[in-house]
Structure formats: C-alpha cells, structure tokens
Amino acid sequence: MKRLLLYIGVCTALLYGVRELLYIGIRSNAGGEFGKLNTAFRFKHETDVLLVGSSRAECQLYPPILENVLGVRVYNIGMTGATLPLITRCYEAFRENSPAPKQVVLLADVHSLGDRPDSIYHYPRYFPYLSNVKLYEGLRELDPRFSGFKWNAAYSLAHLSDSYKNASVRGFTGKKSKYNYLYHKGYSPCKAVMSDSTFFSLRPYAYPNRLPEHFTTALQELAQLCRKDGAQLIVLLAPVHTSYTKQLPGYEARIAELQTLCDQLQISCGNPVSSGNMQDRRLYADPAHYNVKGAILYSIYAAKYLDTLTQ
Amino acid sequence: MEFVYFLPAVLVLYQILPSAWRRILLLLASYFFYSVHTPWCGLLLLATTLVDWYSALRIDQSTGQKAKRIWLFVSIIANIGVLCAFKYSALVYNTFGILSGVISDTTWNVWDGLIIPAGLSFYTFQSLGYTIDVYRGMRAERDVIQFGLFVSYFPQLVAGPIERYKTFGTQLQHWHRITSENIVAGMQPLLWGFFKKLVVADRLAEFVNPVFAAPENFSAGTLFVVAFLFMIQAYCDFSGYTDIATGVAKWLGKDLVINWRRPFFSKSLHEFWQRNHISMTSWFRDYLYIPLGGNRGGRFNHFRNIFLTFLISGLWHGAGWNFAIWGALHGIVFIIEILLRDKIRLPFLGSIYLLTFHALSLIAFRSSGFTNLSEYYSQFFTGSWNWSLLCIELRTLNDLFPLLLTLLGVLLFVVYEYCEERQILQRALTHPTAALTLQIVITILIFVLGNFNTTEFIYFHF
Questions:
Q1: Which of B255, B128, B264 shows the shortest CA–CA distance to B185?
Q2: Sheet with A232-237, edge to edge strand ranges
Q3: Contact B447 A15 (CB under 8 A)
Q4: Which residue among A4, A159, A163 sits closest to B184, beta carbon to beta carbon?
Q5: Measured between alpha carbons, how far is A180 from A191 in angstroms, rounded to an integer?
Q6: What's the angle, vertex CA B405, arms to CA B400 and CA B406, rounded to 5?
Q7: What are phi and psi of A268, to 5 degrees?
Q8: Pairwise CA distance, residues A173 & A179, whole Å
Q9: What is the ipTM score, two decimals?
Q10: Tens-place pLDDT, residues B251-264
Q11: Which of A116, A150, A162, A235 has the fewest CB atoms within 10 Å, i.e. the most exposed one?
Q12: Which pTM does this prediction carry?
C-alpha cells in the first residue's frame, strides 16, 4: 500500500510539474499565436480600439492600417473558431489585466450562426492561460470540461497535442518553426489555400431560421460590458463570399434581425463594404476569409467606416 | 476512453461486494462492457456461450462416441457458423459475385451494413477450444456463470489472448479482495501496454495510414521503411492491448497466458511463431494442425498441413484475400525453412531475414484489399529507391517535431524490449525502488509523448 501511495503521489507531483513546465514554455513565446494570447490574457495592454471576433477579425482586420487612418492604438484579439459567447468571454478576460479600450469593434459572423457555442475550437491553446479567472470561468461556462483541464494535470496533458509541445520547446529555445505564423498586433493572415472548384462548391453547415439565443444573449452581454467600461461597441458585418452566403436560407433576414437587435441595444451596426464590392474571388483565401490582399483592402474600408462613425 | 471510467467503477464495486457476488458482478460488467454500444452483440455472445456450455455438458455426460461427436459438431457449427455469417459472408459474396460477374467491384455490397462484433474470432475460438477439450476428456464445467465469465471476461474479451479452460477457467473459482501486491504486480504490464499503444503504435499510425491509403504517391524506399514501421505498430498495438489486459487481470488476482515473448528477437520464422501471438499459434497447433495429421503421413502431408494451418490462420485475422496471402506467405517460408534447416545457418543474418520478411509480408496484412496490395507491391518493386526522398516524404506526412517524438518513442520501446530480452530488466525490477522509478517514468512518458487522439486497437476488428 505504501508503494502504491508513493507511486500515486510522485506521479501526480511530476505530472503537475511537467504540465507547468510545458505551460511556461508556451507562455515564453514572444511572437506567434501564443505571443498574442499572452497579450490578450496575461499582460497589461493599453489600446484605444480593440478588435474582437473570430478568425474573420483575426485575419481580415490589420491594426496598422486602422491606426494609420484613425490615429489611435489598435489591437486585434480575434480568435480563430470563436463563437460570439466565447468572443464575449475573451473580451472579459482581456479586461482582467488591461484597461478598457475606447472602442470595441466586433466583426459579427452572421454566416456561421449554426456553430455550436459549447464546442471550443482548438481549446488546448487556452490551457496555459487559465490562471486568468475571467477566462477560466467563461470557458468553463461554455465547456464544463475546463474544470478538469485546470485542476487535473493528466487530463489536460492528454489533450495537449504535439503542436503545443513544440510551442513550449520553441518558447524555451527562442527558435521559430512552421507554427510561428506571422502575427502582428493580433492580426494573422489566413493560411487557407483553396482551389477554385473547392471554393465554389463549399457547402455551409445547417443554418438556423432565427438568430440563436446564445448569439443574442452574448451580444447583450458584450454591449453591457462595454457600457460598463465606457467603451463604444461597434458591430461590423463580417464579409463572406456570396457563393457561400447564397446557400444560407434567410441570411439577409438574419442580418436584418441583427440590425434590429443592435438598434435595440443602441449599438452602431453596419457593413463597411457596400453591396457587391469586395466579392472578387482573387481577394479570398476561402469563401469565409480574405487573403492578405483582401484583408488590406477590407481594413482600409473598415478604417474609413470607423472614421466616419467617430467624426 | 470509457474504459477509464468503467474500470475504476468495476474495481470499487468488486471490492465492496461479498466474495460470492464478485463473479456475478464481473459477468454483468463484462456483458455491459461488450454490449454497451451494440446490444445485439451481447446477445450473440450469450447465445454462443450457452450453446457451448450445454454442448460440452452433453459431451461430458454422453457415454457413446457418436453422441459426443454430435454435440461437438453442434458446438463447431455454432461457433464457425457465427464466424462465417458475420465475418466471412461478405468475402464469399464478393468473391463469387465478381467471379460470376454479378458485381463489378467490392466498393459496395449488400453486406455493407453488417457489423462484425468486436473480438468475435477470439471468443469463438476460446469457447470452441473448450468444447474440443471436453470432447478430448476434460471435465465439463457445470456452473454456467463460471463458464460465461471464462468466455466473456472483459479484460481479454475483445483482443485475447485466447485462454484455455484448463489454465484460466479454473482460476475463476475464487475471487479474493484486490490487494496492493496485485495492484503493484499488474501495474508494470499495464503501464508498458499503454506506452506501446499510445506512444509507439498510435504515433506510428500517423505515418503508416496515409502511406497505405495512397502508396502510389511514395517512393519505394519510403514504402520499405513504412512496412517496418507498420510491423512495429502492429506489434505494439496488439501486444499493448494484451499487456493492459494482463495488468487488469492481475489486479483481480488472475494470470493471463503469456502471449508475446519479444518476437522481433527471433532468428527464424519457426522461432518467431513460438514467440508471436503464442495463444493463437498454440490454438491452431492443437485444434487444427495436429487434427489434420501434424507431421505424420510423410513430407507432403506435413507440408500441406503447415500450409493449410497458416492459410486458415491468415483468414482468421481478417476476411480478405490479402490476409490469406499473408498466411500463405508465412506457410511457404515456414516450409522452406524446414527444407533448408540442416543446410543453412544464419545466426546473425537470421534476425535481418526474419524482420525483413515479416515486414514485407505484413504489407498484405495491412492493405485494405487486393487492389491496395497490388498498388503497394507494384510501387515497391518499380518505384524509385532514392533514399533522399524518404525524409522529404516523411515530412509531408507530418511535421518534424512529431516525427522526432515518434522516433524517440520507438527508440525507448527498442531499449526496453532489449533489456527484457537480455533479462536486464527482470534483474533490475527485483529491487522495489527501481521498479517504482521505472513505473513513474513510464507514466510520465505516456502523458508527455502519448497520442491520445486515436483509441481503437487494430485487433478489435478480428
């Protein structure tokens, strides 16, 4: 019995030690994805405009362009795969260490309303940041497994894939690898490469016939948080190629619903790109993301739109 | 993953319940474990168990040889019938369909909806072996619960080893409390089993699977290396499961038969089959090869019996002609070894020959079908042997970092097996502190190097 208890004790201690070591390595990344997560969830970062959203925000809004046009500091905490409830939690988590921005710009994904809010994309990337109380509580609310991920070393280690271990090694050694995608002020270009045939034949997921409750609740929460922080919330419609949106039954009606909801919440909501513009296939990496060219153009449009709103 | 919750729950209940109830708990737990996803599979298991139990009882009670034979025949028909219906019907349908021109290919057939119950080949053979033993004079088990537990015992139900009633069934009479000594004794095989499965087999699968899916896209050198990688993967996957089963059985105070004795250290195919999947090899020897006549009746009959035994054991592994080819290859080389036994001695080269032959023969075993097999072999014999392509192609399958972790896993596996083979490990493990340290190190390595994305064992399909 003594030997068994010793085994359990030493293994538990070592597992927590190894996990912490991996997390330290991951958090030591100055650049790349984890550099951004450090800024978003660990460090104090002062910014005037905070860009929030999913991968649409992350790879379509280039902060330096907005900074140039608006003359203020801009940072992008768009998270790939994030649904609106998670985006709201990320904003709360950002605020845990950083002062409130003057403006919060949300790129709202009206085309992906069918996504499940309890399924968090690439969830292990948040593991090293669970000491951020708001982030942990928010994630746990969406996915109850996060209690296990925080407190059970074996459980969380089993979910850490090789890319995270690689990131940890890179953090300690300071060496870059293919995982060090270009990140600048939270922006990262879309990595997708798609043939035309795939591009035009891509089918969307099941689409709801009204704005889902989790979406409206999360938007209300975000609006409330921004109001409390004295920040102006601005909603931009995330651009998606028409080859994709035309397959979504009631897409226009959902946009109208969103605009009504924004009016009720007294939030500015609009599309920086007028209808028909920016639909050239060559601007897209995939039907839901601009490539670098598209992102630069869209950032100019978005900056001008935000400029008119603030004037 | 469910096993992680299922096992502690069973162990806690086992410890709480009085001795008389423990075997009932294990029987119920075994049936629950087996039929939780597909309840009818549990009913099938129950039906074959009852048929074999009753047949054996009648064989034991019958005085006449004819009656004994009839009840043995009932048992054989029941077991082989179930195997044929669920496992081989699609093969027969496809083969005759193509030969007669009714169907043009095997990509779709009426049997697509048919699920092969997990571990079907294992439990039918275990159960059938019992009735044959009773026919040969062993006393039949009167207690249906004990026999039911022998067939369905959850640690080894889905992937063996194939146990004999004489050695394992008799252990099932007494169910003592779980002791810390048994937990400690079971820990070593359990942890090493998980290491082999999660760190070696599942990591190698990430390189092996894409190559076998499209062999025409790879150079001959890569196909050659991947054949070796699959050889290690298959061994670690299957022996890993057996080790886990051995460890869990040990916790409950039961000893499973030794199924693997480091076959990669063999120097001939003869030695290999004395070390590899021992429970299956001995089953085929005792219940097929010897009844066929064994080495009696002249050289031709001897070789015919060897060939047939290997051919059938190939088909036992899977319902496809690629498995038959694999079995036939082993049969032929086994016979050649007998013919050359006194003429050639290969003390060192023996290992190289054995590993190369086994790796190349396993291509047939791993192929998804005849077309896939011919694509692999044709690319292997006609493709480029430019070794510089190997690294480039392996890098296209996965990143450098996972590749390095995989190589580290394989290296640790080889070192461990070598130490076991040379008895270094056994000597070291007699010291409690060394054993504890090793177990701790393996546990940490599993969590740091393990691939937890894949969970299925290859042999669950057999």
A1: B255
A2: A74-76, A49-53, A103-108, A232-237, A268-270
A3: yes
A4: A4
A5: 12
A6: 95
A7: -75, 135
A8: 14
A9: 0.79
A10: 988 899 999 999 99
A11: A116
A12: 0.86
